[in-house]
Structures are given as structure tokens and as C-alpha cells.
Description:
The protein has 289 residues and is α/β, with parallel strands linked by helices. It contains 14 helices and nine strands. It has helices spanning 3-8, 10-23, 27-33, 36-39, 42-60, 73-81, 86-103, 119-127, 150-162, 182-193, 216-225, 233-242, 256-264, 279-288; strands at residues 66-68, 109-115, 133-140, 143-149, 166-169, 203-205, 212-213, 247-251, 269-273. The strands form three sheets. A four-stranded antiparallel sheet has the order 3-4-2-5. A hairpin with a 2-residue loop joins strand 3 and strand 4 (143-149). Helix 5 (42-60) packs parallel to helix 6 (73-81), helix 5 runs antiparallel to helix 7 and helix 8 (119-127) crosses helix 9. The longest helix has 19 residues, at 42-60.
Amino acid sequence: MGRAAFDEVPQARQTFEAADAALGESLTRLCFEGPEAELVLTHNAQPAILTTSIALLRGLNSRCDVAAGHSLGEYSAHVCAGTLAFEDAVALVRQRGLCMQQAVPVGAGAMAAVLGGERDAIEQACAQTEGIVEPVNFNCPGQIVVAGEADAVTRAGERIKALGAKFRPLPVSAPFHSSMMRPAEECFRPHLDAVALSEPSLAVYANVDATAVHDARAAREALGKQVSRAVRWEEIIVRMLEDGVGLFVEIGPGKALTGMIRRIDKDVARCNVESPADFDATREAIART
Length: 289
């Protein structure tokens, strides 16, 4: 993950080296050599994804007008906007991952993707189910993620499948973004409060309410709340479209967000950057916008 950028782009190599220094260990070696079982642990995966994303962003070296990120990606967006220093961000997301993993015992919580079905009906199915189960990612039309207590998620799944929607359990270790993460929010808040935030140089759209954040105080509040609140990605993209965004560039490992954006608006321009091989086409797309 990020190896091509590290090998080919000096700014990317410097980003990985900065992450190693900030964490006091070689995240670079873990990303490139594994073991995978260690890399996928939440407290390692979060700084690894952030570092790879910022390495690619710096390698691309192109301007953007606004930024947003899905869950963890909101931290990358704030590094892009200058709200957070990268070294502070990578240390913060390490703590975020630790707090999230410790909040709920492994096996006590679960998450599942719901494909198809109406949003109101899915919300109602969750509300009618005994125990904690909530919609936690509103990704795009026809794709919502629910999370909560493992048994409650299973029971809600039966209701949801009866609506004609597909219900797919996700291989995750905790019910992220659900109210079960409130202890994680309380654990993480002192770490977030201890870090200096600057005024963002561009608007960053917040996960918790899909509004554009323009100042450091609002950024801190949004980042603190998002640990245990739903990610309103579809609303973010709709708001950005309303605000005049004409090209979306997804930066980082994977291209899930590009697919979600296509389902929200099939006509808007979009591209993704997973390696230096994507730089030229992306720069050309930006130049045309």
C-alpha cells in the first residue's frame, strides 16, 4: 500500500518517513511488508490509510477548492486544508483507532451493508428492532450501512431482508459510528483537544451533518463527534454539487468513493488516484475543470 508512490515520488517518501517519526515505529515497513494481520488492525490501518492518502496527495501536487473525506478520510481532508499538521493527524488517528477498538469487546458489535431498499424503511426496521442497531453510513442511493449490538444487527437484518433489500454482514471488529462508540468518543476527545488546529484554507465538509466547516473550532467539534455519529456521505456529495463542484478526485487506496459518487450523480466528472500512474490523467482532468 503506497509502495509505488514511496519509490517514485520524493514527497511521498518524505510523508512515510514523517509518519514513522511521529509514531515512533516503522509504519512504512508494516505497509510494505506486513504482516497483513497486523496492518488491518484498526489502530494500524487508520494511520496507514491516512499516510498513503497524503503521500499521493502531495505527489499529485494539484490544487483543490474544497475537500471532504469518508470517516477516517475527514482527517486527510483537514491535512489537505491545513487544519491539521500531518504529523499531528497521523498520531491522532492512531489514538482514534485504539479508542475505537477498546470501546466494544470483539464480537459484541457488528456492521452490515444494506443494498437496495428505501432509507425510511431501513431506519424504521432498525428502530423497531430490540437492542442497539442504527444506520451509520448513508453512502449513496441503495447503499446504507447499519451497526450495533451483534444480535440486534442480525435481527434487524431479517426485517430488512423482508423488505426485499440485500443484507451483507461486514468483516469488521467493532460497530463503528454507532452510539456504542460513545466511550471511544470520550476516550479520544482529550487527544483531539491537545492538538493545535489551524483555520482551514478551504471548506471541509463534515461527516456528522454534511455542512462546510470554515474554522478550527467547528473542525474540532465535527471530528470529535464523528466517532459515534453516522457518516452522511450522500448528503455531503449532494451539498458539494449544489455548491458548484464539477470534478471529484478520490485520493488514496481503493476507489469505493468514486463508485458511490457515480450512484449519486452519474454525470459528474470523477477520477481516482491510487498510484503515481494516475497522476497525469488526474492533472489533465483538473486542468479541464
